[in-house]
Amino acid sequence: MKILVCVKQVPDTTEVKIDPVKGTLIREGVPSIMNPDDANAIEEALRIKDKYPDTKITVVSMGPPAAELVLYECMGMGADDAYLITDRAFGGSDTWATSNVIAEAIKYLGTFDIIFAGRQAIDGDTAQVGPQIAEKLGIPQITYVQKVEIEGDKLVVERNLENGYEVLEATTPIMLTAIKELNEPRLMNMRAIHKGFHEAGIKQITNAELKIEPDMAGLKASPTNVKKTFTPELIVKGTRIEGNPKDAAKELVRQLKLNHII
To answer: Are the C-beta atoms of 177 and 127 separated by less than 8 Å?
Structure first.
């Protein structure tokens, strides 16, 4: 089985700064991490490999050269190959343009049975790129995945809903987007870290290979732009309950019930 996992490097902060001209994130000086949902995606791919050792896991990420770090992390967890999709022509891409680039990169790499992605990235919260990639590859998709089982030649997948979950059966190839309830990501191990840094390494895919037209990638090709991002001011209104402890406790319980907290 061949599995591809899409991961993203995101800023590890709730206070992001925006370039006033481009409307894009300013990442300089901000520590970066692997997007949390993407960690669940790579973990699920690794769990499949644990059960089916002949599985090959390829990881891709689109971003600047510094995004190699998140790919090395994936290698340290146990991925077999890693590719950084990077080119100045791709800079400033929105979700539509990003999915164009990643879909073309996947086609360039070959065919895969399962493509995993995180549900959404914490720096954008759009949950659009995974489904858009599936559409551009012409394959089915299941989003908000909280459980995956392989039964013969089919997948049995639990898809999380607001008030429960649904069980779906699917065949490959397919795109699955992961949520945190899917699993608990493992830590890196020394053997895999050594292999990633000294044997496999990170390969790059640029527009020299993909040959994407200017109207399909980059800032100018993006139909959406970030105009403003900010951390909302937290306003907490408290209530002080006066009186003796017994009466205060009764009043507290009454107010909690009134507000449907208990």
So the answer is: yes
